[in-house]
Design goal:
The protein has 811 residues and is an alpha/beta fold. It has 27 helices and 12 strands. Strand 1, helix 19 and strand 2 form a beta-alpha-beta unit. Keywords: Ion transport, Membrane, Potassium, Potassium transport, Transmembrane, Transmembrane helix, Transport.
């Protein structure tokens, strides 16, 4: 606890610091209360008082977050406002509340607790920073990052000089304005990364550009801030400055060359794919505390050691994931709320002179304008769309807890006065509250996946390469997906290019990572979680006679933004089909919900067709590859619509495989095609007639018509398919007014699988039958695309339609 903070805290509450200092001398027994029934006031004891303060801090900030949610406000706004509400600006203006809930002795305990929290926070900040991103810098990102800092510094310094020389300001204001101009021009990479994550755009190309640029900006900002802080902390003492710099370099060297090898040794000793050992987690927690103690002992800031330790700690599993899981919630919802309360207790917004407020706010606004113009003009010059360039300029104005720490460092070193500090904190709330809704209005990440060409299996060129993006969550998905890919019948005239994407949840890292693997080279340590999955696809490629090519990737991302990686690869690689696995019935509920959200996002935003694969059991996964099977029975359920036409196209491609027996079941109502859209009915009839014409002569394909009256008849047909098929294909979306699915909406709520897909996935009588739910690419079309030979491929036999085996059954 700094003496200035104690004095300032007492002053903001209109208390006499000397009168209140006597409360610090407490006996040892004033820790735990005996209870109100024994005439013991719990607020007079440190431990129950601390519990109440934690409750109020976390509760008020959570309440503010809920209240501000309709206004699209970020978390940092609710945190700062929560601290201000509990501080002398509002609730602590009441003498009873200030003396009993946040007395001076309690304030000191809060300060000590938040010091521990900040050590963990700076470790997590360092863990989020990937130093290898420096290798990926190019001239554009460096220029964007440099001008985003240089231009605001130039503008703010110019305007502050004009105000100092040509206006009548207080001496303290004149002294503070140059430092305010520097503080309002800096950009912090972890803050930008957290802000992009909160906006759910960190995985987009826009987000990656913002991250790379903010990393460059952070380097320039760090140099400026380091020089400013050292010059104020070591004024007139060159020996102290040299000692501080040399000890800081020594800490970095020891951490990189001694601590990091120890952490890598822990990773090597930890079993592959297993969570990090508990003893290693405890050792790393102790290392954070010891690094803070050592830095404090040699005259450095206690947060510097944990920050460097976080940078050298490998991100991702097993170390980064384990440490983030252990520290993230504790830090964010226990320690940091206390810090924002402590910060709010030092802020009295009514104590600021209005002229001083306008002056500092004007310099802060010029800094924000400079950041915006520096990023906007540079990105626009690099041919970024105007709206995206404007959004990027706004993103560069994001501020957070690291800026608050820097502001406090400047105040503690007397570089800025108290009133300037208060105004800068208020401005942070204002700028974050304004830019967040504007960014959401300007930038829609889903638009970048829109394409104007048809990327579907149905519209793929005959005798051409078919590109498929296969997503895998774990090893259990691999056999079923490989069998499905083999069922697509790769051949010399129509090879199969598989873009394998192993999806891993991101924990303990600020930006998503997509790792490409080269099958001919030894795996790196980053590829360890994907090793067995990549090896399985390597074996499949090796035994495919050159008809299959595999391009494996690992995507490490948050589930809520994982769809961006999927859609980005599908867009860049021009795939016609994305295969995503459905969740396992025996999986954790949290993973089920996260995977379903990811699948829905992929279905909504994919630039091509999507197929959701439901692996219902072990029957398929226990068998060898489909190429060695004697018979693989596939059924296509056709109700009508674009998605069913896509499922039929997938089934038609499978029909050429020698081991596949295909049955197409078309559902009719009272012997006729149902539907109010005459154009859709015409498309369905044309596609089905062409299918029958092209499949004539292929006696491994059968066409069946099932006549039903309502959804009950549809369920009866599905129930009759028990244990008859290894795979069932169906479209996702159907006409909700159709009599064929009448009443099924109550049986199964239509979600990412659609009404029929949910019925099939939840039907226990289907046993281990796999379900493939297809959705055709979401695109506007004029209907002319359907008048092409969509089934003319190398495996189809020209013959008369009358040779096609047809059955009609009334249900």
């Amino acid at each position: 606890m700094e003496p200035d903070d104690i004095s300032l805290y007492a002053t903001t509450k209109a208390l006499d610091p000397l009168d209140n200092f006597t409360s610090l001398c407490k006996a040892a027994w004033m820790t735990h209360s005996d209870g109100i029934f024994f005439n013991s006031n719990p607020l007079h004891y440190s431990f129950p008082l601390l519990l109440l303060q934690i409750f109020l801090a976390s509760g008020v900030m959570l309440l503010m977050k809920v209240l501000l949610m309709p206004f699209n406000q970020p978390t940092v706004v609710s945190q700062i406002l929560g601290g201000i509400v509990l501080g002398p600006s509002f609730l602590s203006r009441t003498t009873w509340f200030a003396r009993n809930i946040f007395p001076l002795r309690g304030f000191i305990v809060i300060d000590m607790i938040t010091s521990f929290g900040f050590m963990f926070l700076f470790f997590l900040v360092g863990l989020q920073m990937d130093p290898w991103m420096l290798k990926k810098f190019n001239r554009k990102s460096c220029a964007l990052g440099f001008f985003s800092v240089a231009l605001p510094m130039l503008l703010t310094y110019t305007f502050s000089s004009v105000l100092i020389n040509f206006t009548n300001l207080e001496p303290k204001t004149n002294y503070s304005l140059p430092i305010v101009s520097q503080a309002e021009s800096i950009i912090a990479f972890p803050v930008i990364a957290h802000f992009l994550t909160e906006l759910k755009i960190i995985n987009s190309e826009f987000g990656r550009i913002a991250l790379a640029s903010s990393m460059t900006s952070t380097i320039f900002s760090f140099c400026v801030i380091t020089y400013t802080v050292l010059s104020h902390y070591t004024t007139g003492d060159n020996y102290k400055m040299i000692t501080t710099i040399s000890t800081g370099v020594a800490v970095v060297v020891i951490t990189v060359f001694f601590i990091r090898p120890t952490i890598l040794w822990m990773i090597c000793r930890n079993p592959l794919g297993e969570p990090l050992k508990e003893s290693y987690i405890v050792a790393l927690l102790l290392a954070i505390l010891v690094s803070g103690f050592c830095c404090q002992a040699i005259g450095l800031n206690a947060y510097f050691g944990p920050f460097v330790l976080g940078i050298v700690t490998p991100s991702g599993p097993p170390v980064g994931t384990a440490m983030a899981e252990k520290l993230d919630h504790l830090t964010c919802w226990v320690f940091m709320p206390l810090y924002f309360v402590k910060n709010g207790l030092l802020l009295n917004i009514f104590s600021v002179n209005f002229k001083k407020y306008l002056t500092v706010q004007f310099i802060a606004f010029i800094g924000a304008l400079g950041k915006f113009l520096g990023a906007f003009l540079t990105s626009f010059y690099c041919h970024m769309p105007k709206k995206d360039a404007m959004a990027l300029g706004l993103v560069m104005n994001a501020q957070g807890v690291l800026e608050l720490v820097i502001f406090k460092m400047f105040r503690s070193s007397k570089a800025i006065d108290y009133e300037s500090y208060v105004v800068m904190c208020i401005y942070m709330v204002v700028v974050m509250g304004v830019i967040t809704p504007l960014i959401k209005f300007l930038y829609d990440p889903s638009k970048r996946y829109q394409v104007y060409s048809r990327r579907t299996v149905m519209h793929s060129r005959p005798n051409s390469e078919l590109r498929v993006l296969a997503c895998v969550h774990d090893q259990e998905n691999v056999p079923t997906i490989i069998n499905l890919l083999e069922a697509l019948n790769p051949s010399k005239r129509s090879p199969l290019s598989i873009y394998l994407l192993h999806l891993l949840e991101l924990v303990g890292h600020s930006n998503s990572t997509v790792i490409p693997h080269k099958l001919t080279k030894r795996h790196s340590s980053k590829a360890d979680p994907s090793r067995y999955i990549v090896n399985a696809f390597r074996y499949y490629e090796k035994n495919s006679h050159g008809f299959v090519t595999v391009f494996p990737f690992t995507a490490i991302s948050y589930y809520k933004t994982m769809h961006d990686d999927v859609c980005s690869i599908a867009l860049n690689k021009r795939t016609s089909l994305i295969i995503v696995p459905f969740y396992k019935n025996n999986g954790a509920m949290a993973n089920k919900k996260a995977i379903r959200i990811m699948n829905r996002n992929v279905l909504d935003k994919a630039p091509c067709s999507v197929a959701v694969l439901v692996d219902r059991g072990v029957q398929i996964t226990s068998r060898p590859l489909l190429a060695t099977w004697f018979s693989y029975r596939v059924a296509v359920l056709f109700f009508g619509g674009a998605d069913d036409r896509e499922a039929l196209a997938i089934g038609a491609r499978m029909a050429g495989h020698p081991s596949i027996n295909l049955v197409v079941i078309r559902f009719l109502a009272n012997g006729s095609v149902v539907g109010d859209n005459e154009e859709e009915k015409r498309f369905d009839s044309e596609v089905m007639n062409e299918f029958k014409h092209r499949m004539a002569g292929n006696y491994q394909v059968m066409y069946v018509e099932e006549v039903v009256t309502d959804g009950t008849g549809t369920i009866s047909v599905i129930r009759s398919m028990e244990n008859k098929y290894e795979l069932i294909l169906v479209g996702r979306q159907h006409d909700s007014r159709s009599r064929l699915i009448l009443g099924l909406e109550d049986f199964a709520e239509p979600r990412e699988l659609g009404t029929i897909g949910e019925v099939l996935a939840s039907a226990e009588f289907l046993g281990n039958t796999a379900i493939l739910v297809a959705q055709q690419q979401n695109a506007v079309h004029d209907g002319s695309d359907y008048n092409i030979g969509i089934f003319r491929d190398k495996y189809l036999v020209e013959a008369d339609a009358e040779d096609m085996p047809i059955r009609r059954i009334n249900v």
